[in-house]
Amino acid sequence: MCTLPLHKTLSCFYYKVNYYFKFFCLLTNTLKKNTNKFMVIHKHKIIFVHKGAFGDFLQTWPSIFSVYNQFKDKKEFYFAGRKVFYPWLSPLNIKLLDKRKKMALDRVYGDLDLPHEMRDFLIIWFVLKKIPTTRTYENIFFLKGIGNKKIKVWQNYLNHIGSLGITGCDNWHKAWLRFFVGDRAHPQKIIIFPGSGHRLKNWPISRYIELAERIKGLGEKVSFVLGPVEYERGFSLPDSFETIYSFGFEELQNIMLKAKLIIGNDSGPMHLAGFNGIPNITIFGPTDPHLWAPIGSNVIRLGLPCSPCTSTINIKCNTVACIDQIGIDLVYEAVLKCLAKHE
After folding, report:
1. 18 within domain boundaries
2. Distance (Å, whole) CA 135 – CA 158
3. How many domains does the chain have?
4. Which residues have CB under 8 Å from 217's CB, separation 6+?
5. Boundary residue ending a domain (178, 213, 230)
6. CATH code, 160
7. Alpha-carbon distance values, 137 to 37, 118, 121, 142, 162 (Å)
8. How far is CA 19 from the centre of its chain?
9. So what's the pLDDT on residue 230?
10. Three-state DSSP class for 187?
11. Per-residue pLDDT of the chain (343 residues; tens, 9 = 90+)
């Protein structure tokens, strides 16, 4: 009887175990995808859930449009999220979910059973990184915007909806421009958004003012736009510049469409500028432009070894050298290049 040496026997055993393990994983993933596709096909009502801020919400729009585009004549669509985002969804015939059903969805946070009526829905729940439950619900699919790969959040969502058998729509941006932008005839203004949702993402206001003075010296019209957060923080700007206060997203859109260039920090308005196809310059510090750079943006960053230090807004520094050390000349040069390119 012929026997193999021990090390060869173990090697063969390891190879077989590894082979069957990979086969099992492949089979499991295939079954899961087929189950997901079955669920998508047979549920006639879809709820999109999003609980985050405006910039985060915009990242979900390409995926929401892709789902709508594939099933627009076959399914009903609902949105569970902030009502102020609804103008961006109404062209897709998406309805706001009623308050009672929204409260039923909140049971997920306590790992509780959903009411029976909610089982008739396919629920697509957008999160950034953390899933709000440890429990598995057969009709809820949590899509993560931030994963192991450094790709844009909106692109990551699009990749994930493929697991539901939904094809990401390549022309989503053309659809956005058709719905919300139209023809922008000769925009003349340069707009600066000096704020953001987190003070440590903000380039110093004094430098924005000096930058605006330099741009004004070129004969350009410069306006500052402040939102509710900047108003509450008491941002102070010189009277020599037009200051516009915007407290609603539709108002913000109308203001933005008059701009030929938009400058600001990593923030929701800058993402809106990118979606609207407006040339923009975004100043990055602690957050990661590989994940969050607006579409078509000219990104300004120093690339210090400690930056980025967060993929969301969980900023760990009290003093952010990565943004405080960005000089005016660097941003001004980017402005000159953008103006020359788009004249």
Report:
1. no
2. 24
3. 2
4. none
5. 178
6. 3.40.50
7. 15, 11, 12, 10, 19
8. 39
9. 86
10. coil
11. 555 566 556 566 555 556 555 544 444 444 344 445 444 656 889 999 999 999 999 999 999 999 999 999 899 999 999 999 999 999 999 999 999 999 999 999 999 999 988 988 999 999 999 999 999 998 999 999 998 888 999 999 999 998 888 989 999 999 999 999 988 888 889 999 999 988 899 999 999 999 999 999 999 999 999 988 888 888 889 899 999 998 899 999 999 999 999 999 999 999 999 999 999 999 999 999 999 999 999 999 998 988 888 887 778 777 789 999 999 999 999 999 999 987 7
pTM for the model: 0.86
Residues whose CB falls within 8 Å of the CB of residue 231, separated by 6 or more in sequence, listed in order: 245, 247
Residue 220 to residues 169, 211, 270, Cα–Cα distance (Å): 38, 12, 20
**Distance, CA of 226 to CA of 138 (rounded, Å):** 44
The β-bridge partners of 298 are: 281
Asked if 244 and 173 touch (Cβ cutoff 8 Å), the reply is no
User: What whole-number distance in Å separates Cα of residue 97 and Cα of residue 95?
Assistant: 6
Residues 202 and 171 in one domain: no
Q: Which H or E run includes 291?
A: helix 289-292
Task: Report DSSP state, residue 146.
Answer: -
Tokens of 327: 């000089």
Name 188's Cβ contacts closer than 8 Å, sequence gap at least 6. 221, 258, 260
Statement to judge: residues 30 and 84 lie in one domain: yes
Domain residue limits at 251: 188-342
What's the confidence (pLDDT) of residue 186?
A: 83
Beta strand segments in 157-251, E: 189-193, 221-226, 242-245
Q: How many CB atoms lie within 10 A of CB 12?
A: 11
Max intra-chain CA distance, the chain? 97
Peptide bond into 308 cis (omega under 30): yes
Q: Do 237 and 159 reside in the same domain of the chain?
A: no
Q: What token pair was written down for 296?
A: 């078509």
Q: Are residues 168 and 220 in the same domain?
A: no
Residue ending a domain, among 127, 153, 178, is: 178
